[in-house]
């Protein structure tokens, strides 16, 4: 792959390419043309060619894209050539839902531990993983080489817990608490705000209705 800057917009589309290519692999498809991939993904063929050309143009005239190769290469760009150990902090509704979902493991995200302050949750297991006390957190991160922590605790506690995670040496925080975390730049934060997505849906419904009333 050429060593050049890839735009954030392209990077933002990579997980979707990765997911579709993974589905094609599961279906046993070995190669696909940009026009067939375009129909499947509802993206124009020229957008696909432009996006994928960023990585040295994996497609070949008259052959199309080698699905396995492209899936592997995009996986490498997304940092999926090795597994990532993750923990969940906050075993409430959302934390338990994430812990119960086994699908992240398929992409190499291995859930190693779950933590909560509620003593009643201590020892409860989710998919065989026990919920632990917060005072075990730091040594657990070190001993189990934890890279990512999902933060599913109340907003009011997020900053304080994020600081403990930073001191513990965590590299990435998957932040579900509705607050922005300002952390040292070596700690990467990805915030997920489900409510923002819902507002976008609401906007799209109202603008669609508005258009059709014209
Ligand atoms: N539930 C949702 O659908 C949803 C959606 C989007 C965002 N969120 C956000 O995700 C967070 C969790 O939501 P929820 O519905 O699961 O809440 P919840 O109250 O069910 O669970 C929160 C858990 O965090 C634990 N906790 C509190 N302080 C802690 C601390 N200092 N250290 C470790 N654990 C601690 C609590 O004991 C509890 O088990 C909230 O910030 C919420 O705004 C939730």
Automatic annotation (TrEMBL):
Self-association or partners: how does it assemble? Homodimer.
As recorded in Swiss-Prot or TrEMBL, the protein's gene is named rex
Q: Which GO terms describe its biological process?
A: negative regulation of DNA-templated transcription; response to redox state
Q: Which residues cross the membrane?
A: none
Entry keywords, A to Z? Cytoplasm, DNA-binding, NAD, Repressor, Transcription, Transcription regulation
Give compartment(s): Cytoplasm
The record's similarity note reads: Belongs to the transcriptional regulatory Rex family.
InterPro entries associated with the record? CoA-bd (IPR003781), NAD(P)-bd_dom_sf (IPR036291), Rex_DNA-bd_C_dom (IPR009718), Tscrpt_rep_Rex (IPR022876), WH-like_DNA-bd_sf (IPR036388), WH_DNA-bd_sf (IPR036390)
Gene Ontology MF term list: DNA binding; DNA-binding transcription factor activity
The UniProt entry, under Pfam families, shows:
CoA_binding, Put_DNA-bind_N
What taxonomic classification does the UniProt entry list for its organism? Bacteria, Bacillati, Bacillota, Clostridia, Lachnospirales
Superkingdom of this entry's organism?
A: Bacteria
DNA-binding positions: 16-55
NCBIfam families from the xrefs?
PRK05472.1-3, PRK05472.1-4, PRK05472.2-3, PRK05472.2-4, PRK05472.2-5
Primary subcellular site in the record, as a coarse category: cytoplasm
- Indicate the segments forming the CoA-binding domain, all copies: 79-180
Q: Which GO terms describe its cellular component?
A: cytoplasm
Positions contributing to NAD(+) binding: 90-95
Q: Transcription as a keyword?
A: yes
**The protein's name in its UniProt record:** Redox-sensing transcriptional repressor Rex
| Its biological purpose | Modulates transcription in response to changes in cellular NADH/NAD(+) redox state.
Name residues in a coiled coil.
Answer: none
